[in-house]
């Protein structure tokens, strides 16, 4: 685990402010949902992605493609974008 050197206090309502630098780096916008995990003595926050959310476009649909044993979910548009990028990389070599 990588330390940022940033320390924040919990307020009287149990809230902690996530610094803007970290939110920008991790792509967390205002009103985004975060999942909360516990690992022994650690609290882990992760940007929430609904099941069947395309990892390229962010589109949520039951019609999205579930690939690589569930490790990759793509919408049709997302799959086309990745396919074009792969073909472009192969042509360059």
From TrEMBL:
InterPro entries per the UniProt record, alphabetical: AbrB_C (IPR040678), B_subtilis_Trans_State_Reg (IPR052731), SpoVT-AbrB_dom (IPR007159), SpoVT-AbrB_sf (IPR037914)
Origin superkingdom: Bacteria
GO molecular function terms noted in the UniProt entry: DNA binding
Keywords on record: DNA-binding
Residue ranges constituting the SpoVT-AbrB domain according to the UniProt record: 5-50
UniProt-listed Pfam families: AbrB_C, MazE_antitoxin
SUPFAM superfamilies recorded: AbrB/MazE/MraZ-like
Record bears the keyword DNA-binding: yes
Keyword set includes DNA-binding: yes
PANTHER family hit by this protein: PTHR36432, TRANSITION STATE REGULATOR ABH-RELATED
Name the record gives this protein: AbrB/MazE/SpoVT family DNA-binding domain-containing protein
